[in-house]
Amino acid sequence: MSCTEKFPPHLFELIKTSKYVHVATCSKDCIPTVSLMNYIYVPVDKSYRKGEDVNNKDSIVFATLTNTEKYRNICDNPKVSLLFHDWITAKNLSVRKHSLSQSSTPDNNGETQEHPSKLLNLLQELNQAELFQMSANLRGSASVINPFSDESKYYKDLLLKVNPDAHIFIQHNDTVIVKVQIESAKVSDTENNTRVYN
Q: Whole-number mean pLDDT of the chain?
């Protein structure tokens, strides 16, 4: 059984709807670095291989440039740590993104409909938001997808669908797709309760 099958609904909600994830990597010389990244959560049944993966693990997918410290670290040491934490939540808060099943749809002209100013919406909705008191640290093994493969195109398309505001970065010529298979999770709350999922 995959560890994600044991995740409670509130943890899935955090992973599926957070706008960014903090990605921690470490060089072969044990020098750590942390990056804030756009990402998508990909369950096994939506992966490129659609269940053919012998490890049967859900994944976090993001794009990175090949000239970054993060990329070099992943090539040298594929073990990564991912931190998810939403300081504010509201069901329709503008800084949150849509999941793959909730992303915006094109209008009759084929153009994706844009939301009003995110900052304005955030300020208007802030008073209605509640503090979210949980953070999750996921650990996994990262692999770089061949940038010329159909698999890379598949995940880039998913990233663009969920993160259209990052299109310049995702479609850059020197960007590669990184897929992190989730191996474990540790969830903590503001009352110092911690739970581990393996």
A: 82
CA distance 187 to 49: 29
The tokens describing 77, both together, are 């040491």
Residue 136, phi then psi, degrees to nearest 5: -130, 135
pLDDT of residue 88: 52
CA 55 and chain centroid, separation:
19
Give the span between the Cα atoms of 138 and 141, in whole angstroms: 10
Structure tokens at 100: 């793959």
> Of 67, 71, 49, whose CA–CA distance to 58 is shortest?
49
| Domains in the chain with CATH codes | 3-98+130-193 (2.30.110.10)
How confident is the model over 36-47, as pLDDT tens digits?
999 999 998 899
CA 18 – CA 166 distance, rounded (Å): 15
Per-residue pLDDT reduced to its tens digit, 57-77: 899 999 999 999 999 999 999
SS3 99: coil
pLDDT digits (tens, 9 = 90+) for 70-124: 999 999 999 999 999 865 544 444 455 555 555 444 455 555 455 556 666 655 5
Buried b (16+ CB within 10 A) or exposed e, 2-25: bbbeebeeebbbbbbbbbbbebbb
